[in-house]
Amino acid sequence: MSAVSPDGATPLLQVEDLHVAFDTRQGAVTALDGVSFSLAAGETLGIVGESGCGKSITALALMGLIPAPPGRLTGGRIDFAGRDIARLAESELRRLRGRDIAMIFQEPMTSLNPVFPVGAQIAEAILLHREIDRQAARREAVALLRTVGIPDAERRATAYPHELSGGMRQRVMIAMAISCRPKVLIADEPTTALDVTVQAQIFELMRRIQDEFGVALMLITHDMGAIAEMADRVAVMYAGRIVEQGLADDVLDRPLHPYTRGLIDCIPVLGKAAPDGRPPALSEIPGVVPPLHLIGDGCAFADRCSLAEPRCRRERPPLTGRRHGVACHVTAAQAT
Amino acid sequence: MSATVQPILDVRDLAVRFALPRPRLFAPRPHLEAVRGVSFALAPGRTLGLVGESGSGKTTTAMAAIRLTRAAGGRVLFDGTDLLTLPPEAMRRARRHLQIVFQDPYSSLNPRERVGAIVREPLDLMAVGAASRERDERVRELFRLVGLRDDQMALFPHQFSGGQRQRVSIARALATHPRLVVCDEPVSALDVAIQAQILNLLRRLQDELGLSYLFISHDLGVVQFLCDDIAVMYLGRIVEHAGRAALFRTPRHPYTAALLAAAPSLARRKSAGYRRDAVVRGDPPSPVAIPPGCAFAARCPRAAAPCRDTAPELRPVGDSQVACHFPL
What we know:
The complex is a heterodimer. By secondary structure, chain A is α/β, with parallel strands linked by helices. Chain A has helices at residues 55-62, 90-96, 108-111, 118-129, 134-147, 153-156, 166-178, 196-213, 224-230, 248-253, 258-265, 310-314; strands at residues 13-24, 27-39, 44-48, 71-80, 83-84, 101-104, 184-188, 216-221, 233-238, 241-247, 325-326.
């Protein structure tokens, strides 16, 4: 099995060879193609990639939220707490969702209900999963708002989502997500819609929550800076597959896949160049991510890759290596 | 900036206010002060970055400067002529020199029009190029200039990726040989790999065509790459204005320092025990009820009594202009 289990610890969540297909006008396309990874309690796994690489689909699959039709799980397992949750009935999934595995979305405005006060929405999540009366749930909602750093929590609990700023709304989402003490928290681009100074606060909050509750965090992002700051391990996705995985330091300092290298090099990083005069031109990854229905038998990155060899266009490279793995014919020998 | 060159754009004391609904019948109409006394100059062939968080007034400032939003006060000298007082027909003629690239290449291109026609439209509107054949040739030239192929002219916007659509937007903006291009977060909606392509393209076009950019962004990495001078805005005012080297090496305003500290970086590693000590707490105050004194005071780690009473004016500190009672 190529999925890493760091230090041999039993992972909390183990995803093996996950396949998801979508029916489109071009026929069935493979959105996830053999995705495997594991997640241990208290650790943060970063999933990074461009739009359309399958990172959000991976999250939705874990939550049993793949829209079907047109989507469907076509293979693989998701082992969580001793059972394969990919095969659970909807009623059982519903008990799991929110209680054991919770999710924070990118846009807190569209994921909160606009016609209910935020405190009531958090209380509702608590009431769904726990034997507790309404009064106690309300009190707990206020306590949670305090935990996530909302000032004047008592009063803010009665506010509607539109009365709060973007940062406050994301704090409410986090309060709701941790309300049932989940073991796994999935955060899908949690700070992308926020200003940088607010982003910094949300990252700080997520780190604190993780320290306090020991939750396993899966952070989906396109931002390598967020990976550096938040993640213990990272999986880089491209066109529905994991193309590189390993410790965040290994992947950021010694990227093996040409795509990972390209992603890191093309960011206009502050202070990278001496700010005197103009910084040099950015390095580019040529071309664009291919549409899923046009991916042939070879490596999906081959057409954009400067290292590509004839066999890259013929056969798809498997993910090799345990500690620092890569799916690339050219650099496979460097995997560890 | 050298004083001998006449700036292509000279904005003086620009103000923009938006009327809000009356709270009660016959109550006075409250106003939102979106831009308050903003002044800056942009030299030909250079790039000025307007930086700030949402609601800081950076887009409104740029839109008022090219008269797409009505200014409540101030002057905007374009090549020495005040745009704000130009009669409508003269303003229309001036527009061929002032173009915009918008943030979202999905909503800023007409989905029912072929991209060739989209790029050609400004030529027809401004009657640039005499014959129809001349305009067709110009469109082909523009497509090549931004890295698109001639045969893509007959396609519709939805047949392009986000990066290619942004290339179409850039081609449209350049059609009339503008001298000033306002770039309003032109890469924020794009994936990082595509961002690099578009940023390199914008710089190459500037070098080849001698364009001046007014570049709006919240991403300091992008700003450092493209902008010669940077104005940092907070709640409708410029709080710091400096050249690239000065701003990034020695930020003087605590807000600029906070923005730099909050910007993502590969060097801040969890493995090395990095924790944020988020010095800036909370959100910017509402522009409807701007506090007296410095607007940043409530979030500022250096704030003292004078900050809450008196609004600081921009003044020179080192190589920068800073509006702060206690600059760094």
